[in-house]
Amino acid sequence: MTTTKKPHILVVPFPQSGHMLPHLDLTHQLLLRGATVTVLVTPQSDPYLDPLRSLHSPEHFKTLVLPFPSHPSIPSGVETLQQLPLEALPHMLEALSGLHDPLVDFLNHQPPSALPDVILGGAFLSPWINKAADAFSLKSIYFLPINAHMISILWDVEHRSFFDEMEAATTASYGLVVNTFYELESEMVEFVRTKYLTHHRIWTVGPLLAVKAGADRGGRSSLPAEKVLAWLDECSEDNSVVYIAFGSQIRLTAEQTAALAAALETSGVRFIWAVRDAAKKVNSGDNSEEDVMPAGFEERVKEKGLVIRGWAPQTMILGHRAVGSYLTHLGWGSALEGMVGGVVMLAWPMQADHFSNAEMLVDELGVAVRVGENKDSVPDSGKLARVLADSVKDDFPVRARFMKLREKGMEAIKEGGSSYNNLDDLVAEMCV
Ligand code: UDP
């Protein structure tokens, strides 16, 4: 499709790192293709936009900051889901639907020439975004930070909850953008296209590359990124470090932390461990501030390991030559970042889509290894220590298959690749 007109896109991301970060990476790709973008956020999410602000002119990259709508079940000062347990999702969605009226008000005050052509929303927000888009005859397109395999699972069951409403609104839109690549799951993409969509517009655009602008992605690293980089640079051997992190939402219990710490100590591997202290109640079932790290652990392993308490510069770590494997919850964004970084993944799925991601990468494709079962399981330290040590060896059984799949993913985002072409097509379709 050829067209010279470039779209004006109103981007409305769902405020949680696993959704927001890839949605903004997508936004960057659209800006690079000449689009003008306005991003709607609430005040606390505004810093997420700094990398894009530093890379694009104010003429092309604008922001619309609206107050976070108050909600009786959301504590004041909380504006993102990662500050809460996952169970708070329905409340968060209710609160965010309160953005509908202020958005309509904003659009009403725009001269027709300043109205966007399309709203590119987070799929979680589709029910109220569709209404706003319809009121101004704008296209609505939804971004899903999960893969087609998970979409098919999610949409295959009747939930009788907000998930059904979301599915109906998302499939009634102009199209879907999915952070996956066609060569990874072409059959599933075709299945979703034919089973759920009447219009067949589904653009696979992944793996979306992290916007590169400084090391702060989604938050300031709690250990200065230069320190982390210096530590990694000192590791002379490539692929010798294990990175351990469970995304923005998960926090391990004391028992799980002890098992993992023991495994790391026994294995003797070099490691970076990002220990989350947000969303404290997600796993622990209480609100305690107690330090779950075993006493003396950090001191004992200081020659081998680096513990980051809080936010870690994840994509920088995964992209470093010294890192060879990644013990992960397998959130889809993190899994793709691991793939781009070329690090073999050890999967400990915890919740949400992690299980279906493990099914695909471990059970079907054999490109990752399972080391944990769910958010209540405690791994056997001895077994885990052996896998950790093996995972940084060249002949780790899944490595060759994983690297072949990675190559396909990197081909997809190169000029002429399937995801690259889909991004071109998406921009063109927005103006039709
Ligand atoms: N992330 C990060 N530092 C952290 C934790 C998370 O940069 O300390 C980023 C990570 O790189 C990824 C996102 O947050 O882009 C989390 O995405 P994921 O799909 O794993 O979702 P989650 O499980 O957090 O919902």
From TrEMBL:
Sorted UniProt keywords: Glycosyltransferase, Transferase
Single Gene Ontology BP annotation: flavonol biosynthetic process
A family per Pfam: UDPGT
Annotated Gene3D superfamilies: Glycogen Phosphorylase B
SUPFAM superfamilies: UDP-Glycosyltransferase/glycogen phosphorylase
GO molecular function: UDP-glucosyltransferase activity
UniProt-listed InterPro entries: UDP_glucos_trans
Lineage top rank: taxon: Eukaryota
Family named by the database record: Belongs to the UDP-glycosyltransferase family.
Name of the protein described by the UniProt record: Flavonol 7-O-rhamnosyltransferase-like
